[in-house]
């Protein structure tokens, strides 16, 4: 029987103090971590971009590029947007704390550092970050056309399928960041308008965007559709006595997705997915998801 070693998390420590670096190295030794060291901001940015650490411990005050500026720069790197950054500093005033969070920091710990407290916080942020990344990967792999926007209508993130559909529709970067952003800003900031899908005409295709939910502060999840393609959930509802939600669950069952993946895609709990499945099995007179998927595929 073979056993798999638990993969080590990579920690980037950024501090210009040899004493602090030595203390952190001793404190984190034996925690199943790989430690990387940077002694100034720009060096931290270069290392982070090339190695993609799992978590960053960032000194706030350093010469040249300080920790706040380094954090801002790191957070602009797409693959690092979910990487937690814990600021380490001797300053504990409100303005400094606000500045750290505004720069993209996840947490703030004051010097002198309590090693036990630091380790607990790191474990918590690593766990949360991995859950977020796994959810994002599930969305990216789901085949779903999803995107998140802010109040200004600018895209914060989108699945690969969304960008592919924009490309097929002839929607270039200029159109997305100007024309579409303006329409989406008006749409998302009006609670009444959000109740109904919005149609937009790109260069080659007409697209539809439907509001799903507010997923975070200043982050709104939308689903993108190509109006020139048949609506698969509508086809399922026409053939079988299903609700809209049930037809969405059945569609993703037919695409081989697990209950957990479906829950992420449809913004519901796995338990709710199970409840919908019970109704789907009853309405289709089948006993399992394989039979239900086969009926859906025959319909589609």
UniProtKB/TrEMBL annotation:
<keyword id="KW-0238">DNA-binding</keyword>
<dbReference type="Pfam" id="PF00072">
    <property type="entry name" value="Response_reg"/>
</dbReference>
<dbReference type="GO" id="GO:0003677">
    <property type="term" value="F:DNA binding"/>
</dbReference>
<keyword id="KW-0597">Phosphoprotein</keyword>
<feature type="modified residue" description="4-aspartylphosphate">
    <location>
        <position position="59"/>
    </location>
</feature>
<dbReference type="InterPro" id="IPR000792">
    <property type="entry name" value="Tscrpt_reg_LuxR_C"/>
</dbReference>
<dbReference type="InterPro" id="IPR001789">
    <property type="entry name" value="Sig_transdc_resp-reg_receiver"/>
</dbReference>
<protein>
    <submittedName>
        <fullName>DNA-binding response regulator</fullName>
    </submittedName>
</protein>
<dbReference type="InterPro" id="IPR036388">
    <property type="entry name" value="WH-like_DNA-bd_sf"/>
</dbReference>
<feature type="domain" description="Response regulatory">
    <location>
        <begin position="10"/>
        <end position="126"/>
    </location>
</feature>
<dbReference type="Pfam" id="PF00196">
    <property type="entry name" value="GerE"/>
</dbReference>
<feature type="domain" description="HTH luxR-type">
    <location>
        <begin position="235"/>
        <end position="300"/>
    </location>
</feature>
<dbReference type="InterPro" id="IPR039420">
    <property type="entry name" value="WalR-like"/>
</dbReference>
<dbReference type="InterPro" id="IPR011006">
    <property type="entry name" value="CheY-like_superfamily"/>
</dbReference>
<dbReference type="InterPro" id="IPR016032">
    <property type="entry name" value="Sig_transdc_resp-reg_C-effctor"/>
</dbReference>
